[in-house]
Design a protein that fits this description.
alpha+beta; Adenine-n6-DNA-methyltransferase TaqI, Chain A, domain 2; 3-stranded mixed beta sheet; 14 strands; about 40% helix
Length: about 300
């Protein structure tokens, strides 16, 4: 029944009451596909359920991987218990700490105070005229909006959004195409959605994104931005809706580790991030397969062999 209801399309709602609801007359008269054979129903249910279970499993695995990655980041860069020269937790093993006037706290010896601007080039986006049809095309450069990131919540990476922009659109709006590994951050409506570009892409004006500087990885920037997000939001301004500017982001203070520790963290994160990316890509394919199979199975265009 669940899968049957999932494929009958959008049902018109009644607006004649305080709370909109399903139009019962339309529901009673609606023709729906039906699989009469019980064994065929079970086979369809089992196939679709297996796809759903695999999607759920990938989501759980990625949630655990993300928790692990965040724990490592916090352990190393918040508690300062990164591995010292002997492989022991630095601060817990009485590693030397020095007071930073800029950050107003102690940091490991050899580390320094900096800003988000030290981590990467902070760039914004724009929107080509939507009244010019040639600005957008099917096979152009992925053009990301905050809405795309809101739909991407739970994923760490993003490949594309709902629309692609053409070369003409890129030129007309003076858009910059960002390289793979750029860290996207929505800067308004709302502030704080984050994702790492899986491929080259561009964005609308609702972003301030980070193209990593030499020596800083996408993963380090991603988790550092998450860590200072409360400060970023506090710096935002606006009467209609809050927004954070690129110039403001450049002043947000962060602690800069040594190159050795950043490289060690980057190497540690690579395998975690790769597993997350593969699971996300597999889920995208599974969702596409499920959404294609569902109506085809229900209306009999595709059948499942019982052999």
């Amino acid at each position: 029944m669940y899968y049957l209801l999932s494929c009958i399309g959008r049902i018109r709602t009644s607006d004649k009451s305080a709370v909109p609801g399903v139009n019962r007359n339309e529901l009673h008269e609606m023709a729906v596909p039906a699989i009469e054979d019980k064994q065929s129903q079970i086979a369809v249910r089992n196939l679709l359920w297996a796809i759903e279970e695999k999607i759920d499993l990938n989501n759980k695995i990625n949630a655990e991987l993300e928790a692990m990655a965040k724990l490592i980041y916090d352990y190393w860069f918040v508690q300062f218990d990164f591995p010292d020269a002997n492989g022991n937790p630095y601060k817990s093993s009485t590693g030397k700490m020095v007071y930073s006037e800029e950050l107003k706290r102690e940091i490991p010896e050899g580390w320094s105070a900096g800003t988000l601007n030290d981590l990467g080039q902070i760039v914004g986006g724009s929107t080509p005229s939507t009244t010019v049809s040639t600005n957008f095309c099917e096979n152009g450069t992925p053009w990301i909006t905050p809405k795309d990131l809101s739909k991407n919540v739970g994923n760490k990476f993003i490949s594309r959004g709902e629309q692609n922009v053409s070369d003409a659109g890129i030129k007309s709006a003076s858009l910059k195409v960002y390289p793979k590994g750029t860290v996207l951050m929505s800067s308004r409506a709302p502030i704080g959605y984050l994702a790492i570009a899986r491929n080259s892409l561009t964005t609308n004006q609702g972003f301030k994104s980070f193209i990593p500087n030499k020596g800083f990885s996408s993963n380090f920037i991603f988790y550092t931005a998450k860590h200072v997000m409360k400060a970023i939001v506090q710096y935002s301004s606006g009467s209609t809706f809050k927004e954070v500017s690129g110039s403001t982001l450049k002043t947000v203070k962060v602690c800069l580790p040594t190159a050795t520790i950043i490289e060690l963290f980057t190497n540690r994160m690579e395998s975690i991030a790769e597993r997350q990316s593969l699971a996300e890509l597999e889920n995208q394919k599974l969702i596409q397969l499920r959404d294609w199979l569902l109506p085809m199975l229900m209306n009999g265009q595709v059948s499942i062999s019982n052999s």
